Amino acid sequence: MFEIIKSGGWMMLPIILSSITAMGIVVERFWALQRKKIMPQELVPQIWKLSHDKKLDEGMLRRLRISSPLGCILAAGLSNRHYGRDVMKECVEETGRKVVHELERYLNTLGTIATISPLLGLLGTVFGMIDIFSSLLEHGSGDPSVLAGGISVALITTAAGLTVGIPSLIFHRYFERLVDEYVVDMEAEALKLIDILHGDREAS
User: Fold this and answer.
1) Is the Cα dihedral 78, 82, 83, 89 positive or negative?
2) How many domains in the chain?
3) pTM here?
4) pLDDT by residue (tens digit) across 108-117?
5) CA angle at residue 22 from 16 to 27, to 5 degrees?
6) In a domain, 2, yes or no
7) What pLDDT, on the 0 to 100 scale, is given for residue 85?
8) Span 133-142, average pLDDT
9) 162 is in which domain, residue-wise?
10) What is the share, in percent, of the chain residues with pLDDT greater than 70?
């Protein structure tokens, strides 16, 4: 394996660094985007009960705000519950945009790696082919097997770039879809709480 990497030349270094970065982002996002961390179960009924029991003080809202992304969104609405439905919705939407930005952390970097890794591999191949043809101009064609071996070595970087880029693209799309689903679900939960507090629906 080390010999293959060595054969790829110096362009293998940024590709390897990209793969390590992508792997770290994927592991971190899998850990951070667990549903139980983003949207704890039964949070809305618990908040409704606290509101019904008149226990939603500033301390409780502060704890709710740092408990989870959904809690942060709900706390934004609850902090303004005395100003009416429209103000609550505006606060929820504004906070929701900030929460989405947090959920999408590192995804832009992962998408960039998915895009540039194959290009880095192709660039390494181009450099390798330039070296091969420069050698041919100096020493002649000689043994065709040497030319074939040189081309094989030059293509190593392309294979490495695709090996990093394809999984990175798959995970990038997966996490983007996951965040979109969380956004829709959190918006529904926030609207549900607003309706419950204003008596438009019953807590369930």
Assistant:
1) positive
2) 1
3) 0.81
4) 999 999 999 9
5) 130
6) no
7) 75
8) 68
9) 7-197
10) 83
Q: CA distances (Å), 137 to each of 15, 134, 141, 151, in order?
A: 30, 5, 8, 15
* Alpha carbons 186 and 120: distance in angstroms, whole number: 39
The answer to whether residue 170 is domain-embedded is yes
Start-to-end CA distance of the chain, whole Å, equals: 58
Residue predicted with more confidence, 158 or 136: 158
CA torsion angle for 176, 177, 179, 184 (degrees, to 10)?
A: 140
Nearest to 107 by CA among 50, 175, 195, 37: 175
Residue 32 lies in a domain: yes
φ/ψ bin of 57: left (φ > 0), alpha (ψ from -120 to 50), beta (otherwise): beta
CB 150 within 8 A of CB 186: no
Q: Tell me the C-alpha to C-alpha distance, in Å, between residue 188 and each of 73, 89, 133, 144.
A: 11, 11, 62, 66
pLDDT category of residue 198 using cuts at 50, 70 and 90: low
Q: Which two tokens stand for residue 83?
A: 């100003």
- Whether residue 181 has pLDDT greater than 60: yes
The single-letter DSSP state of residue 204 is -
pLDDT score recorded for residue 30: 95
Contact present, 180 and 100 (Cβ < 8 Å): no
